[in-house]
Amino acid sequence: MPFDMRRMPKRVSVLYFLFGILFMMITLIPGTPIAQARPLFAATPSISVSTPGSLMIGQDFTFTVSFDNTGSSTGYGPFVDVIFPVNGVDGDPYATPAEVQDGIDFDATLGATYLGSKLECTVREFNSSGRAIHPYARDTNGDYLVVTGDGGDKLVSCKLPFGSFVPSQPSVSVIFNATLSELADSSAPLPIRARGGFMYGSDPLDNWCCDAIILSPSSNTSSTWQGGSPATVTPSILTMSKSGSPPESETATGPNFPRTYTINVDIAAGQIVDNLTIGDSLPDNVQFIAMISPASCATEPSTTTPGGTLLCDLGSVTGGAGNDAQVQFSFYVPLEDAAASRVLPATTGASSTSENDAYVEGDWLPKDTRDQPSQHLAVGTPPSVDYAHTNKSIPVQKSSSVVGGGDAIPGATLEFTIEFQVSDYFAFGAVFLEDVISDDLHVDAAFTPTLQING
To answer: pTM to 2 decimals?
Structure first.
C-alpha cells in the first residue's frame, strides 16, 4: 500500500518535520563533512613575478608581483603571498650554532606598495619545522592554513586594496621592497616564490564553512609555487658595460672621424677586487689611436695596424662610487682591415660592422668567511659582443628639439636636424636628403631650412 502522510497521526507528522529540520542544522554545522561542488564559473587568481635578475650584493632593490583574475567570475578579498629566501645559501637560524642568514629579506619599513600607497602586509617566519600560519586563508573548519617552507625564511602576505576583483579588471602590479645581504654568495641564484588568492572566495561573506577560499596554486607547499620554477635574483660582485661615441652607433670611415670606446666597471659597495684587469679585443677593422683614461696601459694595440688587444691592470679597487673603474680610448675605422681588405667596398660603399669584445677579471675575498678563500671573477670573456657599430660611407642621423623648450605636446613647435658625414675614402655628388613628415605634424611654412657644412 502506498505511503500517505495524510493518514499519519498529527504527532507523527510533526516528529518527521522536526527530524528534517534537525538534519539540515547538523549538515550546516562548521566542520561537518559535506560535499562541496566547485562553482561552474570560478575566479582564478594569477600572478607573475619580475625581478632585476642580477644584483649587486648588499643592495636595496624592488621587484614586482603582478596580480590578475583570469577566471570567469568575481573573486573577493584578493591578496598575494611572497616567500622571501632570507636564509640564502648558508643561513639557518635554527642550526646549532645558528648560521647567519645571507639571502633576501623583506624591507618592512618601506613594505609593499600599489600606485605609491603602502599595503597592509603580515610577515610570518617559518619556524624550525618549516611551518608558518597564514594570516588570512582558512579551511572549512575555520582553521588558518599552514604554509611550509624553509625554517628562517619569511612568508609575506599582502592584501590588495580592492574588496573584489573581476575578470575584466586590468592586472595590478605590487612593488615589494627588499634587501640583498652583503654576505650573499656570488653567482648563486636566490628564488622568490609567490601565489595569489581570494580570502573570501566567490562571495563577499567571510563564510569559510561554505564558500571555500580560492588559492592559485592551491598547494601550501611553497616550493611548488610557480610550478617549481620561481623568479630569481643572482648576487654579483662586479658588472661591466661598454659604450661607444659613434652617433646612433654608426660612423663614417677615416681618421677625420675619431671615436671613443668606454668600458665601465661597477663593484658592489664596500667590496674590494684585487688585480682588477680590463681587457678589450679590437676588431680587425678598427684602428687604435691612443689611451684617454688611464694615460697608459700595460698592453696597448698597434697605432698603425688595425685590431689588437688592450690590457689595463688597475690594481685593487673598492666598490661604491659607481663607475668604480673605467678605461677609455680613441679609434677610427681605416680604409683597410688587418688583412689588407677594404673595410667598405670601393665600388658600392656598402656598410660593414665592427663588433667589439671587452672583459674584466679580478680576485675577490668575500666578507663571509664561509665563502672564502678568494674567488677569481671574470665578466664578458670573449667571444662575447659588448658593443657594435656600423661603418658607412655616408651615415645620416636625425634629431629633434622643442623650440623654446618644454615637452613635445600638441601645439608645440619642433625643430628637426639632419646630420650626415662623408667618409674620407669616398666622394659623392648630387647628394639628396629626403625626410618624411608623419601625419600628426604640419610643416611651418614660415621657417626657412638651412644647410651648414663643416670641414
So the answer is: 0.80
